[in-house]
Specification:
CATH superfamily of the largest domain in chain A: ATPase, nucleotide binding domain
Shape of chain A: globular
Distance between the termini of chain A: 21 Å
Family (chain A): Belongs to the KAE1 / TsaD family.
Main location (chain A): cytoplasm
CATH class of the largest domain in chain B: Alpha Beta
Number of strands of chain B: 10
Radius of gyration of chain B: 18 Å
Structural class of chain A: alpha/beta
Oligomer: heterodimer
Catalytic activity (chain A): L-threonylcarbamoyladenylate + adenosine(37) in tRNA = N(6)-L-threonylcarbamoyladenosine(37) in tRNA + AMP + H(+)
Distance between the termini of chain B: 55 Å
Bound molecules: zinc ion
Strand content of chain B: 25-35%
Keywords (chain A): Acyltransferase, Cytoplasm, Iron, Metal-binding, Transferase, tRNA processing
Order of helices and strands of chain A: EEEHHEHEHEEEHHHHEHEHH
Number of domains of chain A: 2
Largest sheet of chain B: 5 strands, mixed
GO molecular function (chain A): tRNA N(6)-L-threonylcarbamoyladenine synthase activity
């Protein structure tokens, strides 16, 4: 078999990213241009600003990716791109750049689901073992995905309101922490011995769904009540109370699902899986349960194109192809490709 | 010399291939379809009909704005990516000038405009003979634009799909000075875009990376942020 080199492009939110992946396992080059410095001004991602930055960056990022790999377009096997979900205006930049590039060099296109990408980031670390359970937690997603084999996805739980990362950002704002809030809350939480007691949203007994808006409101109410009493809140204790609630619910539901589905491996993916509190709790739970647990390194947890290339490699081998009429799908559902 | 012209600044779409000053292929449509879905298949189809390969191109022209933000970005992203990866120069032309060029030869000024909502427009005015700008591309209230045009004291040919949205207020203010172009001139054409691009000197291929749409407006979020910064001082 000839070596397969996939150029992957990802622009679903505020990261302009490209990568070249060899045979679905090896990163040849991986370039990410973050917009955090710009978006920080607004305390969150402004879609129009994100789209403008993507147009500024896109060709430079792809060029840098090819240069770092020391490769010519003629040596590539295919072009992969995130089709959705994400911000539509942002997705469109990556998709149209991918289509123009593929047309210029007569290369096949592969449309990739962003969450499949997050899960497949693990293939760049070690081969996945099936059946598998993935917990995908980021600013936009909180999902439990069961995989019987490569290319097979069953979403068994998802958030009914805010994504975990979104709740982190909102609580960070209550505590006057800058965007993105996750790392600040994580740090503060580790500085407190004891947290403020906040509720846990377990939902129905057998549900694997999540809900974080109640918890977020509880934090806001707590601050409000303290303000009215003229008392100062202790940000460390609030952060710890909030994080403990998020981590306990995520860990408990993931563990229960892992047991019910009798999986061989549990994967944590997405930006929030970089959270130390969550990582430690999951590691401990699955060590006790004797189930293999993996989290990709930080730079593969946050949005990147290497993960898109890793998923695309399997899709390419399964015969999945896009075409020049591909559109951005902001609400794209995670569907099996086998 | 083979040129590809891409015009997606508003809901109409036009793509053209011009070889040595002759139109080889051109498509002009007004179907209100998503540019993201239609542009690349249309480009591919025109290349196939013209029996050309992407590598045969010598230069690319694109409508750079103003217009719909998403439309501009789709056209510019495609033009930029093709130009960069094929190592060809990329020339940007004002989308208002491309539209105004449909009326070239008019004795007076040609005013092209796009509806920017809430009684605002993106607009410019060009000398009907030379196509030199008399009023530069800008964002304005329709009233503000008409005041400027009135002062020119010369017949004004209004051109573009959106001109009819303002017909009443234009006529009220300019009376006989205003003339409305026929609908056959209302859609921008890729061949006109290329014609205008050919008048510019070709930029170096390295400049492609810095090419961005000319929105003529900063985002609302940035405008508010700037306001807040000033308040804080
Ligand atoms: Zn993501």
């Amino acid at each position: 078999m000839n070596d397969q080199y996939i150029l992957a492009i990802e622009t679903s939110c505020d990261e302009t990213a490209a990568a070249i992946i060899l045979n679905g396992r090896e990163i040849i080059s991986n370039v990410v241009a973050s917009q955090i410095e710009s978006q920080k001004r607004f305390g969150g991602v402004v879609p129009e600003v994100a789209s403008r930055h993507h147009v500024e960056q896109i060709t430079m990022i792809i060029e840098e990716t090819l240069e770092k790999a020391n490769m010519q377009p003629s040596e590539l096997t295919a072009v992969a791109v995130t089709e959705g979900p994400g911000l539509v205006g942002a997705l469109l930049i990556g998709i149209n750049a991918a289509k123009a590039f593929a047309f210029a060099h007569s290369l096949p296109l592969i449309p990739v689901h962003h969450i499949a990408g997050h899960i497949y980031a693990n293939e760049l670390v070690e081969p996945m073992q099936f059946p598998l359970l993935a917990l995908v937690v980021s600013g936009g997603h909180t999902e439990l995905v069961f995989m019987k084999e490569h290319g097979s996805f069953e979403v068994i739980g998802e958030t009914r309101d805010d994504a975990a990362g979104e709740a982190y950002d909102k609580v960070a704002r209550v505590l006057n922490m800058p965007y993105p809030g996750g790392p600040h809350i994580d740090r503060l939480a580790h500085e407190a011995e004891e947290g403020v007691e906040f509720p846990r949203a377990w939902l129905e007994e057998n549900s694997y769904d999540f809900s974080f808006s109640g918890l977020k409101s509880a934090v806001i109410n707590y601050k409000h009540n303290m303000d009215q009493r003229g008392e100062e809140i202790d940000p460390q204790k609030v952060a710890k109370g909030f994080q403990d609630s998020v981590v306990e619910v995520l860990t408990t539901k993931t563990l229960r699902a892992a047991r019910q589905y009798q999986v061989k491996q549990v994967i944590a993916a997405g930006g929030v899986s970089a959270n130390k509190g969550l990582r430690t709790s999951l590691e401990q739970a699955f060590e006790e349960a004797k189930i293999s647990f993996v989290v990709p390194p930080l730079k593969l947890c946050t949005d990147n194109a290497a993960m898109i290339g890793a998923a695309a490699a399997h899709m390419y081998n399964a015969g999945v192809r896009g075409n020049l009429a591909m559109n951005g799908l902001p609400g794209k559902e995670l569907k099996s490709w086998i | 010399m083979i040129w590809l012209g891409i015009e997606t600044s508003n809901s109409p779409l036009s793509i053209a291939i011009v070889k040595d000053g002759q139109i080889v292929e051109e498509i002009v449509q007004n179907e209100k379809l998503t540019h993201s879905v239609t542009v690349m298949p249309t480009i591919e189809e025109l290349f196939r009909k013209a029996n050309l390969n992407p590598a045969d191109l010598d230069a690319i022209a694109v409508s750079e704005g103003p217009g719909s933000y998403t439309g501009l970005r789709i056209g510019v992203t495609i033009a930029k990516t093709l130009a960069w990866t094929l190592k060809k120069p990329l020339v940007g032309v004002s989308s208002l000038q491309v539209l105004a060029a449909n009326g070239q030869g008019f004795a007076g000024v040609i005013c092209s405009l796009f509806d920017a909502r809430r009684q605002n427009v993106y607009a410019a005015a060009y000398d009907g003979e030379t196509m030199q700008p008399v009023i530069q591309d800008h964002h304005n209230s329709i009233g503000g634009l008409l005041e400027q045009l009135q002062l020119l004291n010369t017949p004004v040919l209004f051109i573009g799909l959106d001109a009819v949205n303002f017909k009443e207020v234009i006529t009220a203010q300019l009376g006989n000075q205003a003339i409305f172009a026929s609908t056959s001139l209302a859609l921008p054409r890729g061949s006109k875009l290329i014609e205008l691009a050919q008048k510019q000197s070709l930029p170096s291929v390295e400049e492609v990376h810095n090419f961005v749409p000319k929105y003529h407006r900063i985002t609302e979020a940035e405008a508010n942020w700037i306001k807040d910064q000033k308040k804080g001082q």
